[in-house]
## 1
Amino acid sequence: MTVRVLVTRQLPAGGLDPLVEAGVEIVQRADDTPFTPADLADAAAGVDAVVCVLTDRVDAEVLQAARDRLRAVGNVAVGYDNIDVRAATELGIAVCNTPGVLDETTADVAFLLLLAAARRASDAEADLRQGRWTGFGMGNFLGTDVHGRTLGLVGYGRIGRAVARRAEGFGMVVLHHTRRDTGVDGWMANLDDLLARVDAVSLHVPLTPETTGLIDARRLALMQPHAVLVNTARGPVVDEAALADALERGTIFGAGIDVYEREPQVHPKLLAAPHAVLLPHIGSATEQTRRRMAQVACEGVLAVLAGNEPDNLVRA
Ligand code: DGY
């Protein structure tokens, strides 16, 4: 029987090369319309593997519908909170993600957001574009320094460490919080203590029940008035309304945000909040990185279909 792989979205040129080279049948819509959950369940039922993106909800229902044939799901993302990995594992369906290939690219965007929020780049550019700039002024668009300050990383995986390397180049002191001691200098056991101490915070945790709402009103209130919050992880890690309030009241200085609680919606209060730099989930969005992510997801499912255990297998 021909091996069939469903690819749920259009992927960057070259991203499907591993599937093409393997000679499998690629099942794909002609356009980039996202699958509804019901359509995804139908389509997944007729294939051996699915290559999907983080907006596809591969829940227990989809997996149940596809269980007779489906053997592997490759998520073109490092985060896999859109997939019910436990249900997949119980059904003998392997899940793969894309670790290691987007760390530097995502860290670039985290640092971009830190600099842009601290230096008010969005506000300043918007004023210029809208004709409100009346000329140089000593008091115009005053931001807050990044170089030489203290950065707190929440989560210290590959992306967090890539951000730390950039921060060191800016002469920053880098502290980090993880639940378990990393054994690396700068580890802080207590998240609240870290938030109260640093000048900037960058989030690098996966979305889990424990990290949902991790940065809430209480924790935002611990941060210093000149501090900047950066989120390139997952939107629901931050309470967006509470963040908007903190910016509005000036209890923190700024925020650089790439991910949102209910993408593609952004809380209206956050859209209106001062000193917020808001990007549309582009952390890994370079041609090179997105192509490699697609290839890694494809390679993972092909390995599973060949009876091997890929390095990028996700464990429940
Ligand atoms: C991921 O891989 O999880 C990112 O959010 C995609 O940019």
## 2
Amino acid sequence: MNPKTDSQRMDKIVSLCKRRGFIFQSSEIYGGLNGAWDYGPIGVELKRNLKNYWWRVIVHEREDVVGMDGAILTHPEVLKASGHVEGFSDPMIDCRVCKARLRADQIINNKGEKQCPVCGGKDLTEPRAFNLMFKTRVGPVDPRSSGTAIFPVSPQGATGPAGPSQPTHPSTMTAGTPIMPASGPVVSADDETAIAYLRPETAQSIFVQFKNMLDVSRKKLPFGIAQIGKAFRNEINPRNFIFRSREFEQMELEYFCRAEEGMQWLDYWKEERLKFYENIGIPRAKLHARKVPDEERAFYSKGTYDIEYDFPFGRQELEGVAYRTDYDLSQHQKASGKSLEYFDEETKQRFVPHVVEPSAGVDRTVLALICEAYSEDEAPDEKGKMETRVVLRFHPRVAPIKCAVFPLLKNKELLVAKAKEIVDLLRPHMFVFYDEAGAIGRRYRRQDEIGTPFCVTVDFETLGEKNPALRQTVTLRDRDSMQQERVAISELVNILTSRVR
Ligand code: ATP
């Protein structure tokens, strides 16, 4: 790896992502919110295609997995039982010289002397635990008040916030008016019962719903529960574009099994997940299944693999595949007092199942897809002169737009009408894009740059003006080879659906 060219490559990717509508910095016009990103019209398609393919492979194409969609707001007891409230933290060090706040593992060790990686300063604090969870408050709590009881039990009860009489119906409220509960205890801003967390992973809602999911799905072991959704971590140092963010999405499967089968399923899922990445266009040579050594593994895990990818900024984790034993279910069973046992009809035994968890990051995989797809080659311009072509070589199955349709000329009514007819023909089957602006070569380049695998052009031969045998045919251009083939319009749906699935 050449660090200079790799950082240049990363700069080009970030700039392309903004220019072509993949990813924008969140709240950009206000200076940006660190660690949060918004997906534009092309990026959202890529992300959805990735999630849909994961769902298809993990849920729809299997007999043994069901899906769920849990809430983001999480009861504090759930995260106490799982160990997140106590233990989900990174040790942090502050530099007293430049005021940088750093993760302990980022501190430079210069011949035994600790140094700030930002300013080189040596005046550093001791490491302190920093909980990565976002805490919030639920219910009618006035965030402007702290520590005081702010809501009366009834309009006649304890003193409310100073000011005019209290509105009693939501429709009479205006922004900024204090909200008053109809009944219930006085709520204080420090009230522990009003605290909730934004989930730091989707997994815990799966464990907590285990019993309901088991009852309604009537699955027998081994079986899995899958979920895709947002997770939040107050990362100390969001970095590498969307790689490490504070708000991100996960695709998680909890695959429940018998204790004696745990290690077998761990290896099975490691292989399945590697295949998945290959099937979305990430070559095996750039994927690495790192067996996490004992000292790095969570104490309850009997085996974990990190699936890593060679990003331009180094080899980094895409997904963790962990055999978590019966830790989570047992913890929730203990803390809630509710049985989370499985009853085996055949052996008449009751036990807490074990679980293997493949947990993947949506945004990290989107970034891997873009990094892998980005390439530059040479192609002739309108006058036949060679120029640099930027092309995203996405696997057609994840490509944001599957096919672009062009009339050769925009001022020829018959060409335009035929092209629009083809758009209508393809639209129920895939996401297509119509473009009539500019020279045809330019239109191809614009699609190459966002990774559209196929372009259809309607020309005078389509209308049968030159050769009647070519009537109702179009050119179908392949993004990677730039080769064009002549195909019948009646064949288009078949050809394209088979290539983009
Ligand atoms: P890391 O060591 O990189 O912080 P992790 O081991 O804490 O990751 P897990 O808790 O195993 O991550 O979460 C599973 C997956 O969720 C990760 O493999 C990653 O793809 C994704 N993920 C975790 N944290 C983030 C984040 N801050 N931003 C984007 N994706 C994340």
